[in-house]
Design brief:
The complex is a heterodimer of chains A (344) and B (368). Helix content of chain A is 31%, strand content 23%. With 344 residues, chain A is α/β, with parallel strands linked by helices. Chain B is α/β, with parallel strands linked by helices and 368 residues long. In chain B, 45% of the residues are buried. Classes of the chains: A alpha/beta (344), B alpha/beta (368).
Chain lengths: 344, 368
């Protein structure tokens, strides 16, 4: 039997801590972040005013269709945007530092040491002519003033941590399977003991069985090492299994944000409802899931009102004219729709 | 009862492993990658049969071998769809007898049943037959030529098969196929290029390309796995619609059990070149018998954080089809493996009228 969560209104202790908690230190604070790209056709507003914060040891899922800006948001945090991309507004505060002001050596010190990232299809990003162990030793030596021997010992520990036999550090990437290579990438991301790991579609290219292995691994690592994580995926079911917080993005905006349990049990935004309904559930009835007709809007000329209006089943005049603000529907539960009622 | 459109019996696709010079001198035995190693199933008319398994289990190779896009090395594929001409059936039967694939009696029986042995068709006739049997590929981002317009992509099968008397007729057939695939109005899409349309629309172009020849049977190889979840069910619904309107029959290949669950009529679970369990979809998913099926079902992510279910995570990864373990091929990863499993391969056993499984546990071994 599925465990039923405490009802939407009554949040238990843990829930409250999760949503409001000021006890833990806020690790990452993203405030009204805007990331635009210069293109030949005009300015593309890939991320257009998103806000969230993340505490030490929390895992947040960032969900949305391809092209909704979820990867761009992650790249903005790491300051890894391509040449034509720039942060047009808002701020990113990581451990008390304003990321927009951090440059040069200080930025390099933060990357990998404090924040690391696992890219989509990362297992194909390993250097084919270098031994996998050496590829992990490299960032450790770059970032920390340690002997190679110490670094090598740590790589062995990391291998054990992610479930690969430490004797395999002298192997080349082609000698490892896809799942193994993904584990190597995770080990590499953890090499300098970061506080925040961003995983961009960590299991999309993997088989179901390997996916389950990797998701379990990520979850265990997160609780063992008190890691904060941002997991990006278009697959809500993957996020449901790994994250405690969930943010749904659509066309450059966060349309709903709360704890994962809240979002699934009490979705407010029509887009969230649509996404959840689009999943076939192997434990449920055998019926064809619903789909969301239409395509996301052009982000060079986004519509003036709600960006989801064109595909929304409950669209009214107001939706095409005014943009709905992100309001707090329930404590810690935010949604941006004209038809949700703010609390109180 | 609908009759069988396709029967696959003990299909084998073995790829020889290339040997080095020294190796061939030391006369080590020729080794094979046994991608498909004795697969049998049948698909009824208007049925959706689904093959599920991990990557490398041979499900795609099975689909391709049926269309002879890779040549099978053993077994029989029989096709008995409408629109076969007598001469073709006769020729296939004669060649099957000549190649000693079938006995004379069986071959004559086939002709009488208006079906033919796909493997014995000569290449030029195979081309004709493929008008009835088409395939949809996995990745709509890579399977469409970016330099061709959608019209050219969809018209290509007509050109290859010299169909359509003139350009006007071709255009009409292409427009109809594009319309059938749900890209409306066709005029709006025909002259665009693949990069100008979305992922879901690209997959519709792939489907239109398969439909333009008006086939009876489609192999759909992971048609939705590259697509966003929000548009997956649109494509699945389109495929269901096409079955109802055009009487299509599908072999659906996927690694995603939850898609198979909502879409298919019957499921075959493949492991390392063999089907280990086969039955009506609902029965297999709700009442799985093989330990591999149970494990696969348990690891499907549930779209709800409130559902906590026990996961059976198998150790190890994709096994090596060039080195298939003796006995039950699943035994090195099976949590219930017994001595018997290491020694002999289990035969299929029916657990209900249409549901069978190959596992020693189900055959009463190990129970006292």
């Amino acid at each position: 039997m599925p465990q039923v969560s405490p009802g939407s209104g009554v949040a238990d202790e843990r829930q409250r801590k999760l949503l409001r908690g000021n006890e833990g230190m806020t690790l990452l604070e993203v405030n009204d972040l805007k990331t635009y790209f210069k293109t030949q056709e005009g300015t593309l507003k890939a991320v257009d005013g998103i806000s969230f914060d993340l505490e030490k040891g929390q895992a947040m899922g960032l969900a949305g269709e391809s092209g909704c800006g979820k990867t761009t948001a992650a790249l903005s945090i790491m300051k890894l945007l391509p040449a034509n991309g720039y942060i047009a507004g808002g701020n990113i505060n990581f451990m008390g530092q304003e990321m927009s002001k951090v440059t040069g050596d200080r930025l390099r010190a933060i990357r990998w040491r404090d924040i690391s990232i696992i890219f989509q299809g990362a297992m194909n990003a390993l250097n084919p002519v270098k031994r996998v162990g050496d590829q992990i030793v490299e960032p450790i030596l770059l970032h920390e003033n340690v002997e190679e021997e110490v670094a090598l010992r740590r790589v062995k520990e990391l291998f054990e941590l992610v479930g690969i036999n430490p004797n395999r550090i002298r192997e080349y990437p082609h000698e490892l399977s896809g799942g193994m290579r993904q584990r190597v990438m995770i080990a590499m991301a953890l090499a300098c003991r970061p506080k925040l790991v961003i995983c961009d579609e960590p299991t999309t290219a993997l088989d179901v069985m390997i996916q389950a292995q990797i998701l379990t691994l990520l979850k265990n690592l997160q609780s063992e090492l008190e890691l904060a994580m941002i997991i990006i995926s278009h697959d809500l079911s993957v996020l449901a299994e790994t994250c405690e917080l969930l943010a749904i993005m659509y066309a450059g905006k966060i349309v709903e944000r709360s704890s994962a349990v809240e979002v699934f049990s009490n979705p407010q935004h029509p887009y969230t409802k649509g996404l959840i309904a689009a999943f076939p559930n192997i434990k449920g009835d055998r019926k064809m899931p619903a789909s969301i007709a239409g395509n996301p809007p052009d982000l060079i000329k986004p519509p003036p009102g709600c960006r989801f209006a064109e595909r929304c089943y409950m669209v009214q005049d107001v939706c095409n004219k005014e943009e709905p603000p992100l309001v707090e529907v329930l404590p810690g539960h935010f949604a941006a729709c004209h038809f949700v009622k703010a609390k109180g | 009862m609908a009759k069988d459109l396709l029967t696959v019996d003990n299909l084998q696709v073995w790829f020889p492993v290339r040997r080095g010079f020294v190796e061939s001198l030391t006369s080590r035995e020729q080794r094979y990658v046994k991608a498909v190693d004795g697969v049998s199933f049948n698909i009824k008319e208007r049925e959706i049969f689904c093959l599920v398994g991990e990557s490398g289990c041979g499900k795609t190779t099975t689909g391709k071998a049926i269309l002879r896009l890779v040549e099978p090395t053993g077994g029989v594929v029989r096709y008995s769809g409408p629109g076969l001409d007598d001469a073709m059936m006769k020729e296939a039967a004669d060649r099957a007898v000549a190649k000693k694939l079938l006995s004379k009696k069986d071959a004559e029986g086939l002709v009488k049943e208006k079906s033919l042995d796909v493997r014995s068709l000569p290449k030029d006739k195979m081309k004709l037959l493929r008008q009835k049997m088409q395939i949809i590929f996995q990745d709509p981002y890579e399977s469409l030529n970016p330099k061709q317009s959608i019209y050219d992509i969809v018209a290509e099968p007509l050109v290859v098969n010299s169909l359509g008397a003139n350009e006007a007729e071709r255009e009409q057939r292409v427009a109809k196929a594009i319309d059938d695939a749900g890209l409306r109005p066709p005029k709006h899409f025909m002259w665009r290029y693949p990069h100008e349309v979305s992922g879901g629309q690209r997959q519709r172009v792939g489907i239109a390309g398969a439909l333009v020849l008006e086939p009876n049977f489609l192999v759909a190889d992971e048609p939705v796995s590259m697509l966003d979840v929000s548009i997956r069910s649109e494509i699945l619904k389109l495929m269901l619609d096409l079955r109802d309107k055009k009487g299509l029959t599908y072999l659906f290949i996927t690694h995603d059990l939850s898609v198979a669950y909502v879409f298919s009529d019957r499921i075959g679970i493949m492991y390392l070149g063999k089907i280990v369990e086969l039955g009506p979809t609902e029965e297999v998913i709700k009442n799985p018998k093989h330990p591999y099926t149970k494990a696969l079902i348990s690891v499907v992510p549930k779209p709800d954080p409130r559902m906590k279910t026990e996961k059976i995570i198998l150790k190890g990864e994709r096994p090596d089809p060039s080195n298939i373990p003796p006995g039950c091929r699943f035994h090195p990863r099976c949590p219930f493996a017994m001595d018997k499993c290491r020694q002999a391969e289990p035969e299929p056993m029916y657990v209900s009228q249409e549901h069978w499984v190959s596992c020693w546990l189900e055959m009463g071994e190990g129970k006292s």
